[in-house]
Amino acid sequence: MRVFTSRTLTAPLLGLAGLLVTSCQPDADILKQQAVPGDTLPSNFPTPAYALETNPPDRATFELGRTLFYDPRLSRTGDVSCGSCHQQSVAFAHADHRVSQGVDGLLGPRNTPPLQNLRWRRELLWDGGSKNLETMPLAPLTNPVEMDETLGNVLKKLNADADYRRRFAKIYGRSPIDSYQFLRALAQFTAALTSANSRYDHYVRGEAGRQLSAPELRGRALLAQKCTPCHSTDLFTDETYRNNGLDREFSADSGRAHITSVVQDRGKFKVPSLRNVTKTAPYMHDGRFATLAEVLAHYDHGVQPSPTLDPLLRRPNGQLGIPLTAQEQADLLAFLETLTDTEFLQDRRLAERQ
Amino acid sequence: MKFSLPTFWVAAVVTVFSLASCNDKEKEAQPTVGTLDIEMEHVVGNRALALNTTTYTNPVSNEQFTVSRFNYYVSNIRLQKADGTEYPQPESYYLVQESDTESKHLHLKDVPIGDYTGISFVVGVDSARNVAGAQTGALDVNNNMFWDWNSGYIFFKMEGNLVASSAYPAKSFLMHVGGFTKPYNAVRTVKLTFPSSNLLVGADHSPELHLRIDALKVLNGPQPIQLSTFRGAHMPGANAVQVANNYAAGMFLVDHINAN
């Protein structure tokens, strides 16, 4: 209607503008579809560890990374891909698997962590053993109970594939495919896994029409009061390693101490993000809790003493944990639901190509 | 002396031209950079290092052993001058492997011409590059010098076999040194002065610096290592630091300089 009115007023000029608009509009749509997921940093997030400029998002490279992520040939047996254990519908965690399951059905010692907002992570894995998003895949790739392959063999397989050779050469302009190209392309996909469009995000960014309910808002206040600094910032983790009182001794898994060889780090694990937490069961580094209700019950009355137990879990009266009434637990669970990012979980650009 | 005007102008023009060409010649004849070759000669005490085939004696304990692998990174090379200034080589990363003859020749290009009195370098890889992600060349993570699960470069590898004695059985040993964070930071800088003569890098001087790297110093250092009881090093930690302290203390020596 407005266009019609304008056109009648200044036909020649607006005709030109109209042409521009009509010629621009489809382009803009295509551009939006072709944009790389996560190529815009969410305004409510802190500064990323893996800056956009480090490996500038590029459509072809992202697609190559996506192909690699879902390629089972990266494993020794040819039947386990990154995507086998990192499923999009559950924020790239592994649904219903207490611990990771690798080649030949071998079980690992730890729960498959979700892959989301990795661009903001300075250290990766439950123990922080990996210090860069690009070299992180080497851990599962070579782990005997995960993909059990060597980097050399992976490169051989990629170089033996004409399609990969063509796609890599087009991007990197040289051959053969080397570890640099392989890891950089894969990182384009893993860095793109950005979850920042939950109901909470829309609310906190003041985007129109997005409100949280009274229980959700109470839960948010409770989280800020009782669950920070561990689950702080809009990433809902402070990226530290802490012993949250699951066990009294750590012979099964020393956690962070496995990396640092420091006694004071025994039993400490990376504080996980709470984003999409309702989707990423089971919980804790060893997947021991099946539900979030169990997790909250643990903090309320299950915390075990040990020399490295986090001081925040020792109360002045000598008791351990974070007391939470039934109402508080219900409110916290209501808030955690708002951190589910359906857009991320269903973004077809992140799915395996059918 | 008396010049006619035309003669003056001819002379002036010729002079100007010859000056100009003279300047050009000077620019061509006096480049600002030269090259330096560093030769790494691996020895075990007073004998050459030969992988697998030669049995050596640990001076710490008289243990007999062979060496099957001997690799290390040299990085962040700096050349010092007498006036205290130094030239830090940019993008300075070298992987030296006994099994790869070519890798034992470090070819430094674009070294500013000058008279150098010493050299320093990191044995290993600086902390920044340890966390910098995928790399190429010497730092390619596919060079079998990178830890996957506790990610970072392996700065030094010495592997071999201990020959059995009446006191202990034969066993293999493995020393993989890395780690760049406290309290087990194994990054070590070695500083060597040129003892007899300076190292002159010039337009017509492409010197060769011969370093002698004595593997025995890994064992016979400030914190001596008995192979039969040493539990090896395979991750950042106290054992890796012990090996690093030993090799940093005396493994690298200036043997001689070929002025060329």
How would you explain this protein's 3D organization?
Chain B: InterPro entries: MbnP-like_dom. Chain B: This is Copper-binding protein MbnP-like domain-containing protein. By secondary structure, chain A is mainly alpha-helical. In chain A, 39% of the residues lie in helices and 1% in strands. In chain A, helix 3 packs across helix 8 (179-192). The longest helix of chain A has 24 residues, at 11-34. Chain A is globular, with a radius of gyration of 23 Å. Chain A starts with a helix and ends in an 8-residue tail after the last helix. Residues 1-31 of chain A have low confidence and may be disordered. In chain B, a hairpin with a 2-residue loop joins strand 1 and strand 2 (47-48). The two termini of chain B are 49 Å apart. In chain B, strands 3, 4, 5, 6, 8, 9, 10, 11, 12 and 13 form a ten-stranded antiparallel beta sheet that branches. In chain B, strands 1, 2, 7, 14 and 15 form a five-stranded mixed beta sheet that branches. Chain B is globular and about 65 Å long. With 260 residues, chain B is α+β, with helices and mostly antiparallel strands. The chains are: A mainly alpha (354), B alpha+beta (260). Chains A and B meet through helix 5, helix 6, helix 8 and helix 11 of A and loops of B.
* Distance from first to last alpha carbon of chain A: 42 Å
Main sheet record of chain B: 10 strands, antiparallel
Q: Determine the structural class of chain B based on helices, strands and strand pairing.
A: alpha+beta
The percent range for helix content of chain A is 25-40%
- Element-level helix/strand string of chain A: HHHHHHHHHHEHEHHH
Strand content of chain A: under 5%
Biggest interface: A-B, 29 and 23 residues
What is the subunit arrangement here? heterodimer
Shape of chain B: globular
Based on DSSP secondary structure assignment, what is the total number of beta strands of chain B?
A: 15
Mean pLDDT value of chain B: 91
Radius of gyration of chain A: 23 Å
Domain Copper-binding protein MbnP-like (chain B): 34-227
Protein name (chain B): Copper-binding protein MbnP-like domain-containing protein
InterPro entries (chain B): MbnP-like_dom (IPR046863)
Keywords (chain A): Heme, Iron, Metal-binding, Oxidoreductase, Periplasm, Peroxidase, Signal
